[in-house]
Write a structure and sequence with these properties.
This protein is an alpha+beta fold. The strands form 2 sheets. It has a 7-stranded mixed β-sheet, sandwiched between helices. A 4-stranded mixed β-sheet has the order 1-2-4-3, covered by helices on one side. A hairpin with a 7-residue loop joins β3 and β4. α2 runs antiparallel to α8 and α5 packs across α8. The longest helix has 15 residues.
Length: about 250
């Protein structure tokens, strides 16, 4: 039985989330409202929203938790060449926080295998947009010849980044944005990007599962660290990060 949350109710302990034998492993609670304040409370406890249009807001805390250390992103020899081309070719740009809402909308419009519709509803866009205006959510965008070709967005608290979604309109465009994010976060001492749920695609990028208890212990410390200010893109940081990858 999951918990129904009224507006001022605290989240239950994450250990109460439904277990692996249930129909919805990791489901913890449900609510009617979705606000920026509720999102912050959730992320600080290792909880995230995921639901479809017409459903109540469903709150999850999965066990295990999929995470990507910035240095673990897999960089093949082919992708390394792509990054070098992006860094030297003026047709390619990497921008940070150019248009957060446009990135969210592009993620919402991207078809996903086995998924009908999108969980990035207007309420989701409004709540994360409020976090962005307060400097707590960011996007990284890949541009090609003056058009947005790919990108990603997520929530940043202290020295913790919670990845939410990504999209690509050109080959490797979202992965370029992810490499830029990993270089930036690694340069600021971020040890872990939250990827939420296990998927083959995330595993192919270098993400791996860790126990929820380990994840919760990490974010208790990481989210209390000073926020990263300012956010931006520095080619030299990505160059050094690329050279350091095995």
């Amino acid at each position: 039985m999951i918990t129904w949350l009224d507006p001022h109710d605290p989240f239950p302990p994450v250990e109460r989330a439904l277990g692996p034998g249930s129909d919805a492993p990791g489901l913890l609670a449900a609510s009617r409202e979705l606000s920026a304040q509720r999102l912050l409370l959730a992320y600080r406890q290792g909880i995230f929203p995921w639901y479809a249009e017409g459903q109540p807001v469903l709150w999850w805390s999965t066990d295990p938790r999929m995470v990507l250390p910035p240095q673990a992103l897999r960089v093949s020899s082919t992708f390394r060449k792509t990054l070098k081309r992006v860094l030297r070719d003026p047709d390619w740009e990497v921008r940070v926080d150019d248009d957060f809402i446009a990135v969210m909308q592009a993620c919402a419009e991207t078809p996903r295998d086995g998924q009908h519709g999108t969980w990035i509803t207007e309420d989701i866009i409004a709540a994360y947009g409020a976090l962005h205006r307060n400097g707590l959510a960011h996007c990284v965008e890949t541009w090609y010849q003056g058009e947005r070709a790919g990108g990603l967005y997520g929530v940043a608290l202290g020295r913790m980044f919670y990845g939410e979604s990504m999209f690509a309109r050109r080959t490797d465009a979202s992965k370029i944005a992810l490499a830029a994010l990993c270089a930036f976060l690694g340069n600021h001492g971020v040890a872990m990007i939250d990827c939420q749920q296990e998927t083959d695609h995330l595993a192919s990028l270098g993400a791996s599962p860790i126990p929820r208890a380990e994840f919760a212990a990490h974010i208790r410390i990481a989210t209390r660290q000073p926020d990263i200010v300012p956010w931006g893109f520095d080619k030299t940081v990505l160059q050094r990060w690329t050279q350091a990858q095995p």
